[in-house]
Amino acid sequence: MKSIINKFKIIDGEKFSLEDMPTDFSGDYKKEDTEALLASMIKETAAMQDALYADNRYALLIIFQAMDAAGKDGAISHTLSGLNPEGCEVFSFKQPSTEELDHDFLWRHYKALPEFGRIGVHNRSHYENVLITKVHPELLLQEKLPGIKDVKDVDKKFWKHRYESIRAFEKHLSENGTVIIKFFLNVSKAEQKQRFLQRIEDPEKNWKFSAADVYEREFWEDYMKAYEKAIQETSTESSPWYVLPADKKWFTRIAISTIILDTLKGLKLKYPVLPKEEKAKLEDAKKKLMGE
């Protein structure tokens, strides 16, 4: 699986084109094998999570970005539900609040970063500030940015600086112990349409649908350009993107679990070894307990 996953790993933005990335790939994997495979990987990941907590040198930040109905919520649920909830926290970022707009665009995301020994999941992230704001630049006027009084003030130099801010932010995190994995769930426009129709036709899924989803669909090509540019500008060795096929949810979940597990294994996590003095204290405590 690792060799297959590498097909979707982007560490050099200059060589990346979204048109080259498939949306319906599944390799030699079969849907009927998904449940057993995921269960096995989740069990192994849970053991690695325990080691991550005990080692206490790293934090793992997992970022999910995608178009509506690409399967982010389901992917998070199916790949992380077996972990210890005390060591894993999910943040779903929506429209920024008044307080958040009174700070720079990274502030609310920095606040939500995981502590060492823990896993943090950001369902949407700081990348919204180069995605939806790229498609709808009028939203930037809410940020009260110096020199930005009109949409016409948002030029190439502005976006260049914003990408630089994101790269610097992630570089700082990486150099200080936060390991970053970024997933873009690459769903096709045709598959999104089918999922929207399912939400409309199934009463139990009606709550998932919003008329705004269809409105944003009209900007599909603009979003694809925004995603491609964001990935090109922010793909690095220490902070890679994974552009995963998302038309087949079951394969997407296998890929996500594989990447998370391989990343944790790559950290060479170790349980703390107590010095001789502390071990001696443990023996004394054991003797006292046995003597009660």
From TrEMBL:
GO terms for biological process: polyphosphate metabolic process. The keyword Kinase applies. Keywords: Kinase, Transferase. SUPFAM superfamilies: P-loop containing nucleoside triphosphate hydrolases. Pfam families: PPK2 (PF03976). Belongs to the polyphosphate kinase 2 (PPK2) family. Class I subfamily. This is Polyphosphate kinase 2 (PPK2). It comes from Mucilaginibacter gotjawali.
